[in-house]
Every structure is written in C-alpha cells, then in structure tokens.
Give the backbone structure.
Amino acid sequence: MTTPSSKTAVAPGEPAPRAAEAVIAGGGTMSDIREAQALIWTGKGPGGLIDVLEAGSTIAWIQLPSAGIESYTSVIDEDHTWTCAKGIYARPVAEHALALALAGLHRLPELARAYTWRKTVCRDLCDDRVTILGGGGITRALLPLLAPFGVTTTIIKRHPEDMPGATRVLGAERLDEALEDADVVILALPLTSETEGIIGAAQLRAMKNDGWLVNVGRGKLVDTDALVTALQEQWIGGAALDVTDPEPLPDDHPLWDLTNCIVTPHCANPPPLERENYARLIRDNVRRFFEGQPLEGLVDPKLGY
Amino acid sequence: MTTPSSKTAVAPGEPAPRAAEAVIAGGGTMSDIREAQALIWTGKGPGGLIDVLEAGSTIAWIQLPSAGIESYTSVIDEDHTWTCAKGIYARPVAEHALALALAGLHRLPELARAYTWRKTVCRDLCDDRVTILGGGGITRALLPLLAPFGVTTTIIKRHPEDMPGATRVLGAERLDEALEDADVVILALPLTSETEGIIGAAQLRAMKNDGWLVNVGRGKLVDTDALVTALQEQWIGGAALDVTDPEPLPDDHPLWDLTNCIVTPHCANPPPLERENYARLIRDNVRRFFEGQPLEGLVDPKLGY
C-alpha cells in the first residue's frame, strides 16, 4: 500500500483538477516539485520540462500526456523512468482510421463537396486488402473493427510476430510488397528517425492507382510534396489525413483543394486530460509506481516511443 | 433436373448478356416472351412490363432487378409469382450505412468542406445507441459490422422477434421511444403506404439534438421539408442520405448547402445487373423455379415488398 510519502507533483501551472484527483485516487499525495518522486506533466509540449526536472531532483518517474512523444526526444533521458499515453487513445484513433478508410472508398470526401446529383459508383471495403504500418495499440484496436469486413490484413512491424486478427505480419523490409496490392494503407506508427518519410514518392508509386492512404500517425511519416503530386496525378485513389506536415496545415496548402483528399484537424486523438481513460492511466500508474509495479505506456528512450 | 422446356425470357429489349448467361447457367433455355414460363425483367422500372405480361400468357414467374419495388406496385398481381433482388445488395448497402454513420459522428461532411485547420472535437460510435428501422437483409448485414463497436442496438420491426446481434427488437408502436436516446438512427425499410413519411417533424423532434439520421432505404420514408427545418434549426446533429425525396435531388435544394448534411446519389446499392450476386440470384432462382423449389426474394403482393 501507498504511504504519505507517495509525493506526486502535477506541472506546469496549477494542477489540472482531473489530474490531481487521479493522483489522489491512485494513492498519491499532491506535492511541490522540489519534494516529488513522481511528476504528472500536463504541458502541451516539452517547454519548461527541463527546468521542472532540475528543480525536482527527487523525481524518478515522469508521466507524459500524449501518445506520440517525438517532441520530447531531447528531454527524455535514461536517468528517469518515462511513461506516455500510448495505447490510451488507441480505440478512438482506430475508429477514426476506419471512418476515414470507409469515407475514401465510398467517395464521401468528393460527395460531401458536391452540389449536384451525379451518378457515382462507390467501392466496398468488403474483401479488400488492408495494409497497416505499425503494430501498436491503434492496430490492435483496429483489427477487431476490420474483422467483419472479411479483409486481408498485412501489418508492417519492426518485430514481425503474429498478431491476433492479422492475416500476416511482415518486417519493414517488405513494405513495398505490402503496398502493391493494398486497397487501403493505414499509417499508425510513431514518428522516429526511422519512420520519418516512410511514405515517399516511391511508396506512393508502388500503391494501386485506386488505393487510399489513411494517416492517423504523424504528418511527417509522409513526404507531403510527393503526396500532393500523387493526388494531383492520381497515382493513388486518395488520401485521408488526420495528421499533416506542416501542422496545422496552412490555409493556402494544395491539399485543401483536392477532392480526392480529406484533412481532419488532428481530431482522431481526443484532447488530452479530457478523457476518462487518461485520468484512469494516471491513477493506475501512480498506484503502480508507489507499489513498485511495472508501469503502463513505458517509453524506451533509445527507440523514442 | 431441368428439361428443354425450361423456357425463360429476358426483357425488355435485347437480352442483357449477363442475364442470359445466368439463365443458361441455371438450366433455363432462352425463349421468346410468347412461349416463356419465366421472365427476367431488366427494365429500369415497370414501363412496358404490362404489355410483356399480356404477350407472355404462359409466364408464371417474374424476377425483378431491384431490391425496393414500390414503383412496381400497380403491376404486381396475385396471378403471377414475383421475386425481387431484396437481400442481394444488403451487404454493400449496410457498409454504406456504416460509412455514413461514422462520417457523421466524426464530422467528415463538415470537415470535407473545410479549407482551414480549425480545432474540432469528433464523437465516437463506440458504446453508442443505434436504432435501426427495418429488420430485413440490410439490418442483418449491418449488425455484424456494428458488433465490434459495442453499441446498443434497437431494431424497429413489423414482427418484433429476436434478431441475432440486436440488443432489442421493438414493434413500430414503440418507435418514438427508440428514437429518444439514439445517437444514430438508420432507416433500412422498404417504402410502403405504412412506412411513407415514418420520419416526420415529431420523430425528428424526438431525436437527440446531436443524433444523426442515416437513410439507405427510400427518400420518401422521411418528410424532407421537416428534415430541412430540423437540420437548419439543429433539432438533430445531422443527416446522411443515400436516398432523397425528390430523387435526383435538384441542384437548388437546401440539403446541398447544409454542412450537417451529406447526400450520396443513391450509390449504396450498386447498379443492377452489374453485380455478380445478381447474376447468381438469377441463376439460382431459374434453377429453383424449374425444379419447383422455393424462390429467393419472394414478394408478398399484399405487403408490397
């Protein structure tokens, strides 16, 4: 059981009420940074985090609020234990990915912008081939949603071991092969030095000319200039992007005008700290930390996710 | 087994090649209308059908090409056996219904028309309440697609008996109750004198003010004027319509301009005679007819579907 020494700080600024409640629900006690053993970081990014860690010399574990943590790379060290919110938002992000894939095949991006009735033939996801890049929480949440469509699923994953519900799991060296016959390609990867630009001109040319690209990972996974050309010249059927590079996407960007493209403003991932399951993660990780149990969402500082 | 007397006509006009092939694959022989026992109707509607039936006095069974047959009501009699294509297109129509429901909740109709990045909060289908009007083939195909979302499903059906995968099945007299707490209401009913205008102002007012209406049945199931008001005054969250009244929807219709509405041009149901499964239905029904087996898609002339 936890003791009154389970000192946890919430920073920056005034403790977010839900975060503080979750700390207490997990058996922690709210504490000043200078005495804290654990830190629940509520900032929108890493700004100020280094200073907090310098002031809080007894902090051993830091909980970060987002699933993707590429912006924290310069701060994350091996002297502390770091956890992020990976997996926590997997379910809604997976649902958004499916909504975007179905929208693309059923031509909703184009039809939503129509002001006249014109004969249109939609495609089906049923019996299609779906390739998913990434084998983390989003993919694990997406596979059961895809199951009733009878699709053939290929997962591209660093360590290609079987995944329940996936037809096959391949290593990254077989990416081009997995793109060639895919009707839908879904990006659900973290952004690291290895995954940046993983979809460039060559990969877009490898895709079927009616295949749809769905990105719910990070904008920089895709070479945006190459994507614009691919959409303009119809190398692929279309793209549905919840994340873009740059982000926010500027008003004059060509992606806005392409009818074979839909951009959603990074809304698959619900706002941090507003979701019950993030409060639950804080509560559970606070309890685990002070009980010496393994933490959820552990970051590998070397891999960067 | 069938014999050389298994005479089947395909009308109007020259026999559609796939229909003729399917007749022969089913053991039928192609025949002139005046000698046919079976008629595969390939017209876009009932125009000319009465004349064909008058000329074909030996015709006992007519296969109609569409799932909804409200336009044939004046021709369908009790002197012939009638079958339609109900159920054949259920799978793609169910998928389109799910695509529209997800698009609505994830705000894609509005986001597809955006030309700027604006913070947006999407909703989830996960754990929602879904009410489906109609308990036919579309609903049977839709329930397995909805299952992994963990939704509570209420089916409104003429004869409320249990359906696999449905949380509850209610009779039409409990419609208002089933609308009140639904996050998504899906119309998958045939159009008959009983179902025409089943969703009017009172039903739209009964719905949640963030609920989405999805229509993949027939346009006249909904009072369109009431729907326009409901969307303009935000009685409901939005509407996603694959069918409209009138149809085609005229260019100056207010539904085109509403960002909480998406219209798809009756494309959930793929073009008749172009689908393998319609050819398969013809083949199987020809075989069944000449072997004296029960036919698939049998029409009840009294019920009108």
Notes: Chain A has two domains: 7-88+271-291, 90-263.
